[in-house]
Amino acid sequence: MKAIKLLAITLLYAVMPTTMSAQENLKKAINNFVCNKNLAEYIHTSNFMENIGPENKVSSFCDQYTFELPMSKKKELNYVLTAFNRDKSTAYNVYSRDAGISDDTFTTIAYGGKLDKTIAFGVHKERNYRVMLVQDRQDSLRRYCYGIVWYENKDDNTFCGSINVVYGPNPQKVKKYKYYGNLSSLGNIDLSGLEQLKELDKLKNLDKLSELGNGTYVIINSDTLEINDIKTSTDFLRRFGSLRTTFKKSLRNHQTEIRTVLTNKILELCRSHGKLLNNEERKLCTDSLRELQKMEFDAYIRGLLDIAMSSLKK
Q1: Region 83-108 average pLDDT
Q2: Rounded CA gap, 311 and 314, in Å?
């Protein structure tokens, strides 16, 4: 295990020559944390690397160091966080959120030669997040991402989280990518599991997903902060409308698993923000839900729609 970690760090530095001088503090802190022999048994390493081009250079990688430390060792992460704060002035985008703050914001980082893989930060309310994006000074089309996640697991008295180092094309500077087939074929989004279904949250109000015809979809990849604030009835109706439209599309394509997650999102929207609606708006949404229910054949989904309608009555 130690040899694997050292190899990962060696490869990481091999593709980070002078470009990383601006993040020297963070680079050293991550190296010290990952290679700390006193922490080795508590850290799991996973690495993705992709080589593309005639010179076979590394075009994209994602190194993730997941840790589950005894509470007595949690201070070891402080050195990494201190280094993050020292170097964040060199970043063009920084995202921070502390545990317990539910502001419905998250950021999605795309990587891979075709930006067909993603990692999300901010989706768990009980976790702390620090993310910075740094331009590659030697390649204007690529950028680095550093993501740190941590939280206390009170069930087994451990200190958990991950350190993520991502490199690849800057989604803001490359073309859109087309994906062929239904939603379940988009990148590494596995729509068979409920946890992975949360990937749909990365499509802001689902507006970033557009059907071009006969199973062809486009995702606009962007390392930008996703904001799903529902503060007014207009926000509610816009979100509701996007979910409703996507639900009806999935009916035509017989995508039951997608409709399940969409219905859960509709239910969550109605429960959390239904009070923003006036009587007329509430009736509009209730009638729309009833319409979807008549079109739906799955008993479970129909039941969820029933609960959503009941939530709007409160």
Answers
A1: 82
A2: 6
